[in-house]
Fold this protein.
Amino acid sequence: MTNKKLICFDVDGTLVDNKTSFVTLIEGLGCPIGEVLSIYNDAMTGKISFPEGERKVGGIIQSSGRATKGFVEKILEKDPVKEESFEVVEYLKNIGYDIWLVSGAIDIWVAAVAKKIGAAGFYAHSSLEFDGQGVFAKINYSGDQNPWKAKIVQKIAVDNGIPVSDIIFVGDGANDIEAFKLTGRGIAVYPYDEGMEDIAWKKIKSLSEIKDILQ
């Protein structure tokens, strides 16, 4: 039996205002964001496979001629964390919570946010590969984030020796739904996907309201 307390946060739109790290990356490289979003939508709706979507977006990134590891890290590490995120995370640490990030975003971006807020650890659904010269080579994006997030939350529970029902999950998007269902303790941050309306344990308009829920 353990008294460990643990809370998982989505990152995109939850701890950071930006809704997706890929938008930050594509815009930072000066690539056509509309074309990339169209490819993403085609993959999500099944018009093309995820591997084909990865290949197409990877080609766009390569065509920028600027996608070196150093430059990409500078783009992804500068996205600001919400000011209230620091306040809430500090509060949660002070009352005994370990903070974990479970995000569909790019690993470099999630790692940067984890470092800024002092998270205990993180998992990222997407990653970028670079060749021996530090030039972008490919995207790794393994399909639907929903079952992946639930699987990661289960892993975190096992690794930390606590029931998954003791884990709180904070998020705002449709890809957080399975994690909400799994834990039964999902906190939806406004503006959240309407699919979360009936499954959220709590619904909040700002992160700071977490301090009223968890004491």
